[in-house]
Write a structure and sequence with these properties.
ten-stranded mixed β-sheet; four-stranded mixed β-sheet; Seminal Fluid Protein  PDC-109 (Domain B); single chain; 20 strands; alpha/beta; TIM Barrel; 2 domains; 429 residues
């Protein structure tokens, strides 16, 4: 019974409720349509029946929960969910721990809702369509004849590709970036002088992140500014995959540093984050709760975010069994679209699509049952063109060649070199 929940007018919000008799949201509970819960100081109404998962609290799954207003009392906010979780995006969400959903409290607006949008757009490598296209290029691939090219200039001469994402920049044993890009300055300069565009991606699956190695936001900002000064690359992507780099402390350090870097240099900032499609029971996908925390922290700090790039790969057989990878990528994007609008208040449908990017892994993924085919590439390209996504990429241009065995070298489905590139580049037409 909720007879005591009388709406009260507010100068900031049309509805406010007394939530003392509304139960807090909790994982593992089977909710039904019209059920109401309180979470982070707000009241939510269930839209469709489901069993709650720890990584999908009400504030980031608008497909499951409708935000009906904030609670009038400070004590009605509920808990933030459990923390921990050691699995990555490929883990079955029913078997691992939470991705730290509770750390979203206070992000965005003063009551935990989405803040003022500081999302922007980047036209780097966008061609005529407005969609940026920048496949990943291994920084360890320079001068390696196992790949179909040995340098950026060689890549452009052989493929025509004029925009790439260099991966990865990590800690060089302390609060300083690795030197792979700097050591190939002449190739970088020649590629750029011929009209080539470069993004630099910080992070990845392995190694020590710069934001983890630097003890303060000031030190981290200084290290990033030094990288920009030494390389001339000011289009920066932060590929945040490691759980230790998604804590509230590290997020805050990274966000504060990036705000300072942008203020001083005008650098572009994007994030690459794990994502999931909907599962076979219709549980919404999109960014994980930890990924939402990363973006919200940046927005809260005043960082202008160019793109939120979804890693649409390695989602596990729990999601992908019998499903085409192109369709799964689109599923993840569709639910992330709603998340973008929840993070940034007032973001239009078109602007939310323009915020999003997608990066699949060519051919055979690390999950043995998952194969991203040429037809999947065509499906994703067509979707990107229809929705006018902000970014399309893939992992990685080095693998876009015939061969089998080592997935670091081959997609294991190519019929010819640069076959996927020639499909993906049509997104710019």
């Amino acid at each position: 019974m909720e007879g005591n929940e009388t709406p009260s007018p507010s100068a900031q919000e049309p509805l406010a409720f007394t939530c003392s008799q509304v139960p807090p949201w909790a994982e593992g509970v089977s909710y039904h349509a019209k059920d109401k819960v309180k979470y982070l100081g707000r009241r939510y109404e269930c839209i469709q029946a489901h069993t709650a998962l720890s990584v999908w609290p009400p504030d980031i799954v608008p497909a499951l929960w409708k935000d009906t207003g904030k609670c009038k009392t400070n004590g009605g906010g509920g808990t933030g969910g459990s923390s921990g979780g050691t699995g990555g995006a490929a883990a079955n969400p029913g078997s691992g721990g939470s991705a730290g959903a509770g750390s979203m409290a206070g992000a965005g607006g003063p009551d935990g809702s989405g803040g003022t949008s500081t999302f922007g757009s980047s036209a780097s490598g966008s061609g005529g369509s407005g969609i940026e296209y920048a496949p990943y290029f291994y920084t360890w691939g320079w001068d390696n004849t196992a790949y179909p090219f040995t340098s950026l200039v060689d890549l452009r001469n052989k493929s025509g590709l004029d925009s790439v994402t260099l991966a990865f920049v990590l800690s060089d044993g302390g609060c300083a970036p690795t030197q792979d890009i700097q050591q190939h300055a002449s190739d970088v300069a020649a590629f750029r002088s011929s009209g080539g565009k470069l993004k630099a991606s910080f992070g990845g699956a392995n190694g020590t992140y710069l934001e983890s190695a630097c003890g303060s936001a000031t030190d981290l900002a200084a290290a990033i500014k030094a990288f920009i000064s030494n390389t001339g690359i000011d289009d920066l992507d932060f590929d945040v995959e490691q759980w230790g780099a998604m804590t509230a402390d590290v997020n805050a350090r990274r966000s504060k540093a990036l705000a300072a870097v942008q203020s001083a240099t005008g650098a572009k900032v994007s994030f690459t984050l794990a994502a999931m499609p909907r599962d076979k029971w219709g549980t919404p996908g999109g960014l994980t709760a930890a990924g939402v925390d990363v973006v919200r922290s940046a927005v809260q700090a005043g960082v202008t975010v160019s793109h939120v790039n979804l890693m649409v790969m390695d989602c596990s057989a729990y999601y992908s069994d019998g499903q085409a990878m192109g369709a799964l990528a689109i599923s993840a994007l569709a639910d992330a679209h709603a998340q973008m609008q929840a993070i940034a208040t007032g973001l239009s449908d078109a602007d939310a699509w323009a915020m999003l990017g997608a990066t699949p892994m060519l051919g055979h993924n690390d999950v043995a049952s998952e194969v991203f085919t040429q037809d999947d590439a065509r499906t994703l390209v067509e979707f990107a063109r229809q929705k006018k996504l902000g970014l399309l990429s893939f992992w990685a241009i080095d693998r876009d060649q015939p061969g089998s065995g080592d997935l670091g070298l081959y997609s294991a489905v190519n019929h010819s070199t640069f076959e996927f590139h020639h499909i993906f580049e049509t997104v710019r037409q």
